Fold Outer membrane lipoprotein RcsF.
Amino acid sequence: MRALPICLLALMLSGCSMLSRSPVEPVQSTATPPKTETVKPKAPRPVPVKIYTKAEDLLGKPFRELGEVSGDSCQASNQDSPPNIPTARKRMQINASKMKANAVLLHSCEVTSGTPGCYRQAVCIGSALNVSAK
C-alpha cells in the first residue's frame, strides 16, 4: 500500500519535468551567408510640374488644358499641425503629374474651416496643362 503513493508521486514529478523541458534549438551557423543584392528597377522620376501663377506667362506658348487639378493639406484636429499652402501646392503638382501634365496654372489657394474630416484645410486649385516647347 505504501508503494502506490510513492509511485504516483514519482509519476507526477516526472510528468511535470517533461512539461518544463524546452525543445532543442537547432544550432545556428556562425558563418555569414553570402549577401545577394536584388537590383530594383528604378522607377522613372516624374517630370517636374511648373506652376504658373499668371495667365499672362502662358502667352505665346502652345499648351493644352488637361483638366482641373487640386491638392490639399488637412489639419485633422485642433492639436495637429496647421495646414500649410506649400504642401497643398506640392500635392497639386503631384496630382497634375499623374494626369501627364508638365505645368499647372494656379487659380487659388486658401485655408478653409468646417470641411468634413478636417478641422482646417488648405486647398489649392488649378488647371493641369501640357505646355509644348516651341
User: Anything to note?
Assistant: The chain has two helices and four strands. Helices lie at 3-19, 85-98. Residues 50-131 form a domain with the Translation Initiation Factor IF3 fold (CATH 3.30.110.70). The first strand starts at residue 50 and ends at 52.
